[in-house]
Every structure is written in C-alpha cells, then in structure tokens.
C-alpha cells in the first residue's frame, strides 16, 4: 500500500511513522511529506532512510492513503487535492471534524459509520479520543445525560516549541517571549488556557470536547462542560470526568464493562495505590481508567480518571487504526480477492 504521511517531520508525524512500523501496516511505498523547507531531508522508517517530498509531488504519486498531521490550513487546502486523485485522507487537524459531510471517528466507538466512498476522514482531538473510548460502552448501557470534564494536558499537545520551552525552563534558562509557546512559564506551573479563548469564555479546546463528543456519540442532547488545563508533563493527557447517567448502575458493573471494552486498561486498586498516570501511559496505545467511584451528590453519578498518551492513541495510533479498518475491508490499497 502506498502511504503518505503529511507532516512527517513534526512531533505527531514522527510518532505516526513509529506506529505504522510497530503495527506492521502494509506499507509498500512510503511518502514522507513536509513543508518546502524540509524537502530533501531524510526520515527513518523501519531503519531505512526516506527522503521527504513536497505536497504536490505526493499528490502526483496518488498514494492509497494519506495521514495528515500538518495543521488545519494545510489540510483545508491539500486534503481535497489528495481526495480528488483517489487518495483516502485521514486528517489529524481540526479542519474537518465538525464538517457535517465528514465522519469523525474513534474506531472502538463508531467505525461503523465509515463507508468506502469516504475520502476525507477526521481524527478527533486528542482529549476527546481517550475520553469517548472509555465512555462509549458506559453510554450504551446507562445513557449519559451530562459530563463535567477537567483535563490536565501534556505540553506535547502544543508541539515542539512547547516541549523546548518546558525543558529549557527546567534547565534554568531565561526565554524571550518569542521563544515561549505559552504566555507564562510552564515549568512548575499549570495554565488554564488550552488554545484560544472564544466569545463564550471557554477555550476552543474545551468546546472541542463538547462538540466532538456529541458528534461521535450521535447525540446532540448531551450536557457537557469542560475546563482544559496545560500541565508540565511531557507525554500524556489526564482527565477527571464526572458523569451523570440516566439509569442506575453498580460500581462492579462499571468495572466489568470497562475491563471488557476494546483498548481500555483498568487500573483501579487504591489499596495498592493503583491508578493511571501519564508517566506509565507514555508510549502505550491503551486508554487507562481508574479512580472509579460513585458521586453521591447527584443521582446516578460517577467519577472516572482517564489517562492516555496524547501523541499515540490521542493522535497517531487512532489515525492508523482508522487506516487498518479501511484496509481490512479492501477499501484502500490493492484489492484482494477473498
């Protein structure tokens, strides 16, 4: 299968190459794609160097699938050009997520909405992916009415500039305003400001959790409110999620359902201080759930603590899983007669 990775030299693009190799996705030809300033550079895939090409060259190669992680403006301009030559695009930016004509997919939740004719498929926001993967099986059983979400998001979600800021501050360096990804120091700090502020007082990151969850669940009636916080953690988002169900439940039922859910690992043994942490979730593909406990302040209330590596399941792994789903159905790549 001819595979293009658009944004191959970036933080997420690098992880996408790792995930494609680890999961043994059937890559017969790799096209690492980046901006013009990176053309000619080399990236490694399965120990072999590949030369970075530009977007126009990649479109001309007519790859079977193009996995994008290059920002919304690039996706808006170039995803339709790839689609026009028959390439299936899986896009990791926010460009297509709320487009009514595009599918927003977490394979464990709603891969069934995909059809062979879908040529641009949206990958949800990292904080949305890990949350809906954990909540979907519970929503099917007990019908979620309302969510109150607090996120504790890794600097890696902002990008290389934020990672550099964090490590340089840790080393005691003084940075200029131009060198900082955030308005404030992130070392030894928490910043309640992910993405830009909107007119309603929420940030765009917070509203992504609202709108994307409703779209993925196919339920516009869900009550959702969120606060997103950037924390000095290198690799992994954490979420405290308060849930109000429409039906009664038992805590043992919750644990049983989560243990049987695809892609979920339950870590919930407080007698041994067992609970998820980004330190342990880093470089892993599962979503980890713990601190499972009833909220006695409301009827049918539950609290969960949800952790995942935002560069893997929150971005690269989810995109590759979508490609795997399409390949298994012979919707991309060379048709295999069964």
Report the strand count.
Answer: 14
How would a crystallographer describe the biggest sheet?
6 strands, parallel
What assembly state would you assign to the polypeptide chains in this entry? single chain
CATH topology of the largest domain: Dihydrodipicolinate Reductase, domain 2
Fourth-tier CATH superfamily name of the largest domain: Dihydrodipicolinate Reductase, domain 2
Please give the CATH class of the largest domain: Alpha Beta
* Integer tally of domains: 2
Q: Spell the H/E element sequence.
A: EHEEEHEHEEHEHEHHEEHEHEEH
Overall structural class, as computed from helix and strand content, comes to: alpha/beta
Number of helices: 10
Low-confidence stretches: none
Share of helix, binned: 25-40%
Share of residues in strands: 15-25%
Cross-sheet strand order for the largest sheet: 2-1-5-6-8-7
Shape: globular
CATH architecture of the largest domain, please? 2-Layer Sandwich
The span between the termini is 18 Å
* Overall mean confidence score, pLDDT: 97
Computed over alpha carbons, the radius of gyration is 20 Å
Structure characterization notes:
This protein is an alpha/beta fold. The chain has two domains: 2-123 and 315-328, Rossmann fold, CATH 3.40.50; 127-310, Dihydrodipicolinate Reductase, domain 2. It is built from ten helices and 14 strands. Strands 2-1-5-6-8-7 form a six-stranded parallel sheet, sandwiched between helices. The two termini are 18 Å apart. The model has no long low-confidence stretch (mean pLDDT 97).
């Amino acid at each position: 299968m001819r595979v293009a990775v658009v944004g191959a030299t970036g933080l997420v693009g690098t992880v996408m190459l790792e995930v494609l190799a680890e999961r043994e996705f059937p890559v017969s030809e790799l096209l690492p794609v980046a901006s013009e300033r990176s053309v000619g550079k080399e990236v490694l895939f399965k120990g072999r160097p590949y030369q970075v090409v530009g977007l126009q060259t990649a479109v001309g190669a007519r790859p079977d699938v193009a996995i994008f992680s290059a920002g919304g403006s690039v996706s808006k301009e170039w995803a339709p050009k790839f689609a026009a030559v028959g390439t299936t695009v899986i896009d990791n930016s926010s460009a297509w997520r709320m487009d009514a004509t595009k599918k927003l997919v977490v394979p464990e939740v709603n891969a069934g909405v995909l059809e062979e004719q879908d040529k641009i498929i949206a990958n949800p926001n990292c904080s949305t992916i890990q949350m809906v993967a954990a909540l979907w099986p519970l929503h099917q059983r007990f019908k979620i009415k309302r969510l109150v979400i607090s996120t504790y998001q890794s600097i890696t979600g902002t990008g290389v500039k934020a990672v550099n800021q964090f490590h340089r501050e840790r080393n005691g360096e003084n940075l200029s305003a131009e060198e900082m990804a955030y308005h404030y120091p992130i070392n030894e700090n928490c910043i309640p400001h992910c993405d830009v502020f909107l007119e309603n007082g929420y940030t765009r990151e917070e509203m992504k959790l609202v709108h994307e969850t409703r779209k993925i669940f196919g339920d516009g009636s869900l009550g959702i409110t969120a606060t997103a916080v950037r924390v000095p953690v290198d690799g992994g988002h954490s979420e405290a999620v308060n849930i109000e169900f429409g039906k009664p439940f038992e805590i043992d039922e919750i644990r049983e359902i989560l243990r049987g859910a695809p892609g979920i690992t339950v870590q919930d043994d407080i007698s041994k201080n067992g609970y998820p942490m980004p330190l342990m979730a880093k470089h892993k593909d599962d979503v980890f759930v713990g601190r499972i406990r009833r909220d006695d302040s409301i009827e049918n209330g539950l609290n969960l603590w949800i952790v995942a590596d935002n560069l893997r399941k929150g971005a690269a792994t989810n995109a590759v899983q979508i490609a795997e789903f399409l390949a298994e159905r012979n919707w991309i790549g060379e048709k295999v007669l069964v």
